[in-house]
Structure formats: C-alpha cells, structure tokens
Amino acid sequence: xxxxxAPKKLYPPYLPYKTIGTFLDSLKVALPQRIDRSLMKSxxxxxxxxxxxxxxxxxxxxxxxxxxxxxxxRLVHSEGADRQRVLQEILTASYPFIFKDGLQLDRATTSxxxxxxxxxxxxxxxxxxxxTFFLKAAKDAGLKxxxxxxxxxxxxxxxxxxxxxxxxxxxxxxxxxAPAQPEEVSWEKALLSxxxxxxxxxxxxxxxxxxxxxxxxxELKKMES
Length: 225
Fold this sequence. Notes:
9 helices, two-stranded antiparallel ribbon, elongated
C-alpha cells in the first residue's frame, strides 16, 4: 500500500500584518467557501503565496484545499472584544513554541523570543518579519507583551517613529558613498570629444583638412554664443 504524503511543514507568517487584516476585512461582505488566488488579484504572486501560507499556518484554511475553517468564520464575523478573544485562541494554538513551552510573553526578552522563532526553522530577514507579524497580531489580540521586547532592525534598514504616534516604520538606509551625479556636457564639448587630436606626422593635405574643419567648428560655436 503506498504511503501517504507527509503533511507540508508550515512556518510562522512573515508577510505584513496589515495585509492579512485588510484581506480578512474584505471577506465580511460574503465569506467564500474556500480561499484561492482569484480573491487576491491585486497582489503580486509572491504576496499571494505568503498570504495563503499564513492563513494555513493560523488554521484559518485547509492547507490542501483552501477550504475555510470554523476559526476563519468566527474571526471574520466577530468584532471588538469578541474578536480579540477569537484571535487570542488562534495565536495560542498556532504558536505553541511560545504559549505552550514555558515562555512568559509579558516578561520575555527580545533574545528569548528570537530563540523560539529560530527553533521553529526561521532565520535571517524571514525571522525578523515573522517576529514583527507576531508582535502586531499579539497587540491586536490584546495580549500583554513584555516591555523588554524591542523592535528588531534589519541589517539594511533602521526604525523611526512617526511624530505624534507610537507607530514605528522601517526606512531603508544606504551605507555606501553617494552615487555620482552625471556631469552635464555641452554640445561643443561632446563634439570636440569626437574630433581627432592633431598629429604633426600627418601629410600636409590631412593637416590642411583638419585646420579647415577645426576653423569651421569654432565659427559655429561663435554663432551659437
């Protein structure tokens, strides 16, 4: 008897948290039976894949068929405090390496959180993005997050805080030298660059031709001045 295929390994979501929130809000008008790419035409192919994987990881859809789950139904149709409770249940079940492995989220440090995500198989920029997604989801769910957990910066970016808000956004930082600006070249310089340099070894006929052409070029320049 042939063996069944092993279930796909799902990793914690790493797309922007706002993306999944906006998508779920769009389903309130009529929750479809399944989630597929035809519902995500405004997104790039990469973002579509990331969103589908995120929904599967959070157990909002079946990873094989895309069929919605009861958790998805409850989350989309809930509001306020009820929605927070549903989201808390989803996060608690989806992140067992945090909630069921002895980590106290309200007292943890940044390094402790990073260690848990690394053990789930993440690294590099995907690790940073996954932690950022989780922290925003936890805040949305009303979970208490330790004040010792700080925003994780990327190697090519920095974090700044918008004035008058608590929101932090990532900005790219270019550490190399400033790119050189192209020098504006006048038409006469461009033309002279194509003009052959005078060579005393030329035959007299060629020398005479060169002087005639050079004189004509100078006359043209005077007329343009």
